[in-house]
């Protein structure tokens, strides 16, 4: 892949990014992989690198009990092993065993999860991670790097005899020491020590001839000598000989063990490569997690279709200081616009936008995950050209502008339809009239070659070129005209103003100077700038109104939803009451008809007996009066139940009670939980004392105002960007609150991402006894990025 200039990494800040990844490498081998990382124009390589890093990111975010990630360079030991006749020391074998265990554990883990992590698993092919070799080392060397006593029968025998002889030496020497202390030949607190590998006792220099033996050392002052008594001489010699035998036996054992390891050196070489590469991929994944990077969509065609792209170094800096980072959205394609001309005020973010494009494209083609939305699509370019900053060349005796022209000549010669060029402050460095003309001519050539590019400029002729030539589009860095402050947000489709006069006025430059400058520029140019400023101001106002309307629209939708739900409930209740009233009326009519028929039948059967007829009519009249009195009592009862503000009431036929907020005419305003409704007074009944107490307790449980809680309760929780353990804690607390408030359904926003957070939350929800189902939200309202929870 063609890259220009050679120091593009320093100019784009890629060297700083590489250093941050280097800090996360555990081994020198991983650092070597990092230093060799270069952008590729082969989509197969790029996709493989992206998949490897993406899979590792999912591995470390999975919550699994992972193998050790203390990656070390296995080649250090292999270099020693490859020299015949040499052997590794016991402490080397202890480290080698740990690395072999790490190698075996990772190969087994990846093979076990090969369907989930296919690219990482493919790295384990072609070599054998032998657990038998680990067991062989374990039998010989312990965790502290010491050869075990039972490594061989000979070693066990030597060490047993060595312990016996050392004990005899110490017994003999202690006997001499006690006698020396008793005879005041040494201090009372003296003890046996070691000099040149032999046990000795301290003796005052003036008494050294009173003890037979050999002097091995003396103190710094010369007042004490360290003697090996004659009684211990032979025993010490025997101990020394046994120690030599022990070393020879250990050397023989380790040589045999080294030869065993040497037989697997080919597999171990491949295993060393695997560990180094895995360390490198792990470092990339850890860094990707730090900058919230993802694997974007990939296409072999050169294109830029980015959403929410962020400059990683700027984002880290702003995050550390608590500042926001405005993301970049940009689209360049063959079918639409290939070249973006960005204009706007100084310090408005033009250069940052250009560097973001260069840095992220370089990262992508190196196979690094990028800090952008997963909906973004990155294309592959065969060459990337950059001209940015002060490129004055002292070696070649070139001025800044000459260096720019040298770069432009290279661009013109090498750029094609698969190239991406990035030029900052296009045309500057010489007289604006001539610099702008040359820049326009070069831009025309690059456009004719169908190259892709991003350039920043203040020149009007380049803005007008973008307006009048297909394939080229203007872009502006947004600016708050009222506050005269940059918003650091790119907007494609229109040129930006430099706001030179406005900024000069804000700084306090005298009005006369500004007016004179306007005269020098010319009326048409000033009018053009004023028009751009006016458009910017109107656009800002429109955006604020749009955001306000969107917020109000959401509130209206929420109120409408609550209203429709309440309306449906009331309609159902109304239907039920009418049905019950009709049934009761029919029952009364049937009873009345039955009594009338019985009366008529009795009169007929009594052959019009006057006394019996009178009695039957009296009974019928009594029934009529009884019904009338019952109706009057019901009316009195209803009148006695006059609804007042502050009372607890229920809808007739319902158990749920609410509080009367206001009474107006024939309607009352009642609050049921977090819903306030207007209901006909005739349909309301005073709540019983028990219901009122229950309502009071429900409203205030444990000192918590439940009505207030209901009104403030949000029907959804957002846990995007939160670690899995923290997200689970938040979701658990939120579910408990929803159950306490009697909510039927809630939404959990976790985002799509790699699906890890969603799976963790779903698994938790499945085990919750109070949850009926947890499914994806409707595709129009978030799809798999949101879980819709329904309670039993």
From TrEMBL:
EC number, as in UniProt: 3.1.-.-, 3.6.4.-
Keyword annotations: ATP-binding, Coiled coil, DNA-binding, Endonuclease, Hydrolase, Nuclease, Nucleotide-binding, RNA-binding, rRNA-binding
Coiled coil: 528-598
GO molecular function, one term: endonuclease activity
Gene3D superfamilies associated with the record: 3.30.1370.110, P-loop containing nucleotide triphosphate hydrolases
Role of this protein: Acts as a ribosome collision sensor, splitting the ribosome into its 2 subunits. Detects stalled/collided 70S ribosomes which it binds and splits by an ATP-hydrolysis driven conformational change. Acts upstream of the ribosome quality control system (RQC), a ribosome-associated complex that mediates the extraction of incompletely synthesized nascent chains from stalled ribosomes and their subsequent degradation. Probably generates substrates for RQC.
Family, per entry: Belongs to the DNA mismatch repair MutS family. MutS2 subfamily.
Protein name (record): Endonuclease MutS2
Natural source organism: Marinoscillum luteum
The encoding gene: mutS2
